[in-house]
Amino acid sequence: MYKTRCYCNRPLSLHCGGLDDADSNRTVEEELWMPSTHTQLLPTDAFGTIEFQSGTHKRKAQYVRLAHDTRPELIMQLFTKEWGLELPKLVITVEGGKSNFGQQRKLGRVLHKSLSKIAGATGAWVFTDGLNKGVTRQIGDALLLENVKSSAQVIVIGIAPWGIVEDCYQLCGHNHDVPYHSISSLRPEYAVLNKHHSYFLLADDGTLRRYGAELVLRRNLEKYISNQKLHPGSQCCTPLVCLMIGGGCNTIRTVRDYVMDTPLVPVVVCDGSGRAADLLASVLEHEQTVLESMRNYFVTLIQNMFEVDMKQAECLYSLLLQCTQRKNLITVVRLTDQQEETSQELDLAILKSVLTGQHLSSSEQFDFALMWNRVDIATSDIFICQQEWPPGALEEAMMQALKLDRVDFVKLLLKNGVSMQKFLSVPRLEELYNTKQGPFKKLGYISRQIHHISRGNMCTLHDVGLLINKLMGGSYKSYYTQRKFQLIYARAMRKSLDFQQSYGTTSMTSGLPRGTLLTSNEENLFDYPFNELLVWAVLTERQQMALLMWQNGEEALAKALVACKLYNAMADEVAENHSETQIYEDLINYRKEFENIALELLDYCYKQRVDQAKQLLTCELQNWSKETCLNLAVAANHLALLAHPCSQMVLADLWRGGLCTRKSNNLKVIFGLLCPFYIPKLEFKLEEELQLLPQAEEEHLVYLEKEHKSTEGQSTDNHHNTVADAESLIYNESHNTRNANRNNRPLSLGEKLYAFYTAPITKYWGHSIAYIVFLMTFSYTVLVKMENKPSWPELYTIIYICTLACEEVREILSSKPVALR
């Protein structure tokens, strides 16, 4: 009897060549059928977009039909250039049965909680066979929920045999949309595609209704990806891990290949998912000597489980024994009724298997944990005992954590001894500002005004300083725009090993290999690195990072108020663009959070020590353009903080100056102005209180001159010293306070006169009375006929106008310069 079908499962009559039945039968029997010999390679005739019609929402997926031996580098070009995918940071290849196995409900929940978490957080690619049956269906359903909840799309790639796909020829066409109904086929030899996949590679080796074409393509692609570096300059390759769920005979063969071939691939086995997975987990529980004695038991078990003969069962058992030789590459996770614990265990098992399977150093393991955003793995498996780290490894890890906005990792590194003062150099800070999320990509018109002076697309710290000046407003002058810093900046950048390359490229980061930035003591130019990093975090809208930088370092109140002002100014800038409503709302919420922090901090300090809290508001901040916290609160329009009792007490002290009157202040001051002999009878503060009075140093120069002479260097430094954080400010006495205790004496007559006439309340009433007299004399001068000789009202008017003009000129000259552009 002659054969009517070819080995490819098509009728012989459909093949080109027109062989008769006898020739066809002879050819099939005498010649082994090979795709390379018996198929013709042609350009693909099927690629485009599948529109799945089933369900309430249409889902789309990209697809392409390609030869089973297509070169993997061409497939990667398709992924990255045509489909716009980023390179994976992890590849999870799922192996399992194609039948609808048991434990579906339990396994589905576990897969959803663990696999979706890994794929969404690590930027992983998930490889399956793409068919709507067996384990692939469970994977698709699990990852569907993650795609709905998460803004980050999980990349699920189905690699399926073209000849198995139901109605595959309706997919033929060049770059067009194809409606597709993902309804289970009634014909068992065919299968439909799973609608929850993102991309499909349909491998064609010329066969029909046969599996196997996808295996070669999938394995070659996995090997190619696993040999690619994670990023330029990295020594780590893209990790690959196999997840074994259920499965049959072919699954055992595939797992054996993973753990024995090069490169070695770690495998995670789900014990309790059925069939091959349970069998392998059971074998791994026993030692090699025990397995030899249990050989007959396992062979019989394999025969019954997979319905194979004795010879095939023996072969499968030998494959299982080979797997046991690489126990270090196989991790078993048991599915239990405690779904939360099981999902976490599977989640960790997949990631830990990568770390242990590749024999990575501590720094390389940390790179993976950082890339996957799994601080729990870094805490439990990397930062253990007393590990030795290569020089600069922790600093480079800190740099990557800051760039990727990994707040928990920054906390972990700080806890494990990374010094920000040694870490933060000028080149590193500038590199942080040149990340993809840099401020010049967010602030629209202001950034364009400033950034046009930059070279290429790189922003310098001087540009950042100009931006800060613009946002802070008024007379604020950033440290980055001061001449002193410019000289330091030029010297530091010249010492950077990559200085010439950096300025010859289009961005700061593109030309800087890892570890090339200098970290010498001369470049550690920031005494308060957390201040600089807080400003960076605010300008790049990294709120959680900004909160972490606020919690560390000094000048907590000042940092909170600066953040308020910057967020407020950024919100005003974004408000001009009506299409960015969400960004505007986020900035306002960030500002409110820092406003609450500043208010709570001041209230805490006020309840602990009133005098220290008042100093906290009025101490001059050298690191913040010599502003005070009170000035920053006014600039940030923090009305709640200005209305706080501590702020009101400071304002009242500033208003009264050296006077200590509590009742009838205005009447006593007016009477003192009209009758100077009454001034000595007024109540004045003691010299100790005057030294603590929140006013400018010049106003107390008369009675602080001796103190300045005796402690010239130390007192000046302490007077201008930056405010420490709340704890040190409350529990440590300042130098000025100790000196004031030794000068607890009343003021002399001259000091009383000086204190009276320099008090703001005295100046106010003095100017008010003088202005009233001016109005009266001016009106009299205008209404009454002028005499040849100037009368005293006329002289008073002339003198008043001249002195007023001189005062205005003096104020202009003595005030800080204000930016006009």
TrEMBL record:
Main location: membrane
Subcellular location: Membrane
Keywords: Ion channel, Ion transport, Membrane, Transmembrane, Transmembrane helix, Transport
Occurrences of domain TRPM SLOG (ranges): 61-323
A Pfam family the protein falls into: TRPM2
GO CC annotation: plasma membrane
Topology versus the membrane: Multi-pass membrane protein
MF terms in GO: monoatomic cation channel activity
Record's keyword annotation contains Aminoacyl-tRNA synthetase: no
Gene Ontology BP term (one): metal ion transport
Keyword Ion transport: yes
Domain of life: Eukaryota
TRPM-like domain residues: 381-644
Name of the protein: Uncharacterized protein
